[in-house]
Structures are given as structure tokens and as C-alpha cells.
Amino acid sequence: MADRDSGEPRSSLLPQLRMDELLDELISRVTQIRATRDRVQQLLQGVLAVSGGLELDQVLSTIISTATELVDARYGALGVIDSAGEHLERFITVGLSQQEIDAIGPYPTGMGLLGELIRHPVPLRLHDIAGHEASFGFPDNHPPMRTFLGVPIRVREKVYGNLYLTEKRGGAFFDADDETLLTALAAAAGVAIDNARLYDEAQRRQRRMEATAELTRGLLSGVDSRDLLAVLVERVRDMAGAELVMISLPDPAAERLTVQVAAGTGEKRVLGESAPVAGSEVGDVFTDGVGQGIVDGEWDARPLWKELGLGPAHIAPLGAAGKVRGVLVAAKRFGALPFDAGVVRMLTEVGGQVAVVLELADHRSDADLLALYADRDRIGRDLHDLAIQRLFATGMTLQSVLKITEKQAVRDRVNRAVSELDDTIKVIRSTIFALSEHGGPDEVPGLRAQVLQVCQDSSAVLGFTPAVRFTGPVDFEVSDGAVEHALAVTREALSNVGRHAHASKAEVDVETADGSLVLRIADNGVGMPADGTRRSGLGNLADRAAALGGEFLVEPAEGGGTVLTWRVPLDD
């Protein structure tokens, strides 16, 4: 049968048609082979790229960048899952500018569709994100995303994180080849991440060892503990990648925690800031001895924290439960993801090292105080056993002269010498009592120190510094209530001398004897008014004496001036 148009038999065209179909199929397969070869080549290049680094952050960024190029996605992200396997502790993105990231707000922590891969770690492909039951929309200012491909990353058979790719370019859908390539890349990424983590852990361990060695050298060389801690928080800030690191220590009553050293953003602003132990996050860690992580918005009302732009933080105790010396706080900027498990472990270890530093510093301080007290005791014994005994013997010798002389002038001179020796003995005994005071640096100063301070402060009004003498253990025998009144009396009396007496000299004598505290203030001024009127300030002094069951006397001094005597009984 012939073809109507050509007159050729129809059967003669069949081989030609089959040949064209075979040629088209061959070309198609060659094209597919070339495309597959190109994608395999691209995959090999991606595997080499992710395997070429050792810094963990660099490796993670390279993985997600390579993944987006491999499947031709516009946006990509790598989410690292926390140690509990429930949330994302890190989130690295590709395709979004910093302005877009800031406009979106805090990074996701693994809710919605991102959490689906955490709960079910198998590859997931979607033509439309909004159609999945786990999706509940995007936050404000988030760019539109429709297509989706997610693949888990495993490190030593444990899920480390997930690759999230969205918006395949050209409006196409992610296909099975994309899923296969991304799965292969994720397998190579797991090995690279494992190597990077081992390297990162080795680097951190080395930096911790360097910091520990620096602490040890500082302690052995006698460097002040505050200077050591200042250097330490700088190192911790660098190792943790934190915006701010600070150490808070408790007050003597353990009621408040105050920032003693800080490094980073706002370090000068936070120094001296305090928080109550009861009812605060830092207080809970201090009390329980268990570290606590804080995410954005979970801090109690602290305007300063918000003002400095700080967000997630971790609070580590300084020491073990029951022996916590304070807290270490490390914070990131607002919107950042919380610290990962490795950093939290490092902060906990550093907290233990800081506790050792503080413990050793206290022991060294105690040893220094004991050495000082021992030296004081030795001086006190020498004064008592040598100086006082020799002065007493000299006084006895002088008194024996009185028996062999009849001249009154000589007798008067000897009596004055003996009186001066008695006064000198009293001064030395008072010095011995002062040396015996072993109050610590945080202890409230005794009557002796406070009277000296009042006299020093009054020198601006008087124009000179009054002489002060103590007799007896004034710091041991005088109650707190009597100390308060005695200081007020001294302050008022010296003020009156400065304003009214026109004196060039004043003496303050504080004595405990015969069950009484006696305070005498003498001056060489103009004395009391001739009409005998008393100033109102003296009435206040008399009232204070009466309130304690004592007495107050105002008498003229020998050679001019006034002597005020304020006497109150000592409280048993």
C-alpha cells in the first residue's frame, strides 16, 4: 500500500521513526547522565568543602551554605538540637540579611514544623509548608516560604541537628534527587561536625588549662584575688562567646549578692549591682548549688538587663551545693540562642575553679591575720614584761628617793616624775589592749577606733588635732549603746570647743575603771561664761549621762579652760 502524498510504501517509514525515537531517548539519557554527573560532582565538591575545616562554627556555616547550593534553595538553616533532644540551641541561617533577622526577632527554638523533624528525625519534603499539620505560620516580618526540604544530621548515630531548606529557585518543587543528595551531604556533615567538636573541645580544654595555670601562678605569687577574678572573667567571656560575664559574691549576712568583677558590655554599669538571695534567679543558684539557664524574657524585672541588650544567660554556682561561695553569670545578646552544652559544662568547671580561688584567698588572708595577731601578741608581751616592769621599777626607785631627801623642791620633782611614769604605764597598757583587738576587716570598729576618727574629723573645726589617751580595755568593756552615746558626747564637746572656747589645745581621755566609763574632754580656752549660763549642747550631754544612770560635770581647768567629765556605769 502506497502513501498518498509520496507514493512511497508506508512500511518504509517505520525504521526511520524508530530511529528518531531512539535518538531522542539516547540524547535524553545522555543529558540525564550529564546532569547526574554534574550533581554528583557538585556533591563531591560539597563533601570536600564541609570536611575541610576544624572550627565548629566555620564547619556549620559551610554545611548550610553548601546544602543551599546543592539543591538550589533560596533559604537555608541548620538547627543544632540541645542535649535533652527537645529544642534547638543553635540556629545558623543562609539567605537572610542581618536586617531581616533583626526584624523577625529571636531565633526559633524548635516549635511547629521545625520541631517535627526533632520529634521524627526522617527526611521531610513538602510542596507547601502551610499545608502541613505541624505548621502554624511565620512570625511578623518573615519572608514568604512555600516549598520545604528537611534532613536530619547524625553524629555517631545520634541526631545532632537538622538541615532546613526552603524556596527552591525557579518555583520548582524539591524532588527525590534533592532529598538523596541532601541526605548524602548530611552524612558527610556528621563526620565533619564530629571532628570539629573534638577539635573544639580540645581547644577549650587547652584554654581552660591556660586559665587554671594563670590562676595558680597568681595565687602562688600573692596577687590579689579580685585581680585574678578580673582576668578570669575576661578569659571566660572569650571562651563562651558571651557579651557579658560577671561574678557576684554574698554579703556577710548572705542576704544579697553583689557584682564584684565583670567583663564585657556594660561592665562598669553592673559593678556594684546587687540582688536579693531570696526570690531571685541568682539567689536560687546560690542557695541550691545547681546551675540555671535563662532565656529571653525570663529574667525578673531588671531594666538594666534590657537596657544593655542582654538576653539568654547561664548562672553557674561557685562551688558545690552546701559550700557555694557566689555565682558566675554569662550572658549573650538579646535574641541569641542559649549556650550549648559544651559551654555550660565549661562554665560549671570554671565556677568550681573560682570557688577554689576564693577559698585559698580566704585561707591566705586568715594566715596573714594570724601572723599579724601573733606579732601583736609578741609586742604586747614585750611591752608588759619589759617596758612596764622597767618603768615600774624606775618609779619605785624614784619614790625611794623621797625617804632620803628633805628638800621640798626635790620631792615635788620626784612626785611629778612618778606621776608621769604612771601616765606612761597607763598609755602602754592601753596600747597593749589595742594590740589585743583581733577584729576582722569586716568587723565594726570599736570605741577606740571610732573616738580617734571623731577627733580626726573635728580637726577641721578646731584648727588642730586633739590629743587622745585611752586607759583600760575600752573596746571590751563598753556596750554598743554606751559607745553610741560616748561618740555623740565626744563629737558635741569638741564642736563646742571649736565654736566657743577659742582654744589652742584639747585633750580627750577615755577610761574604764571601777565599773564606769569615764570620758574627759579638756581645753585651754576661755572657760565657761562668767554669769554661769550653760549652753544648750551641754544640756544634751547631761541628758545622755542621765539616760544611762550616770553623771555629767563641767569644771574649770587648772591654768584656764574647761574640763567636761561624762561618767556612766558599765553594763555587766
Q: What amount of the residues lies in strands?
A: 15-25%
Assembly status: single chain
Number of contiguous helices: 15
Helical percentage: 40-55%
CATH topology (level 3) name of the largest domain: Beta-Lactamase
Written description of the protein model:
The chain is α+β, with helices and mostly antiparallel strands and 572 residues long. The protein has 4 domains: 43-201, Beta-Lactamase; 210-355, 2-Layer Sandwich (Beta-Lactamase), CATH 3.30.450.40; 366-435; 447-569, Heat Shock Protein 90, CATH 3.30.565.10. It is 50% helix and 19% strand. The chain is built from 15 helices and 16 strands. It has helices at 14-50, 56-70, 98-104, 112-119, 176-220, 225-240, 267-270, 281-288, 303-307, 341-401, 408-435, 447-462, 474-477, 480-501, 536-547; strands at residues 73-81, 88-94, 124-126, 148-155, 158-168, 244-250, 256-264, 274-276, 292-294, 310-317, 327-333, 467-471, 506-513, 516-523, 551-556, 562-569. The strands form 3 sheets. The protein has a 6-stranded antiparallel sheet with strand order 8-7-6-11-10-9. Strand 4 (148-155) and strand 5 (158-168) form a beta hairpin. Helix 2 (56-70) runs antiparallel to helix 5 (176-220) and helix 10 (341-401) runs antiparallel to helix 11. The protein is elongated and about 160 Å long.
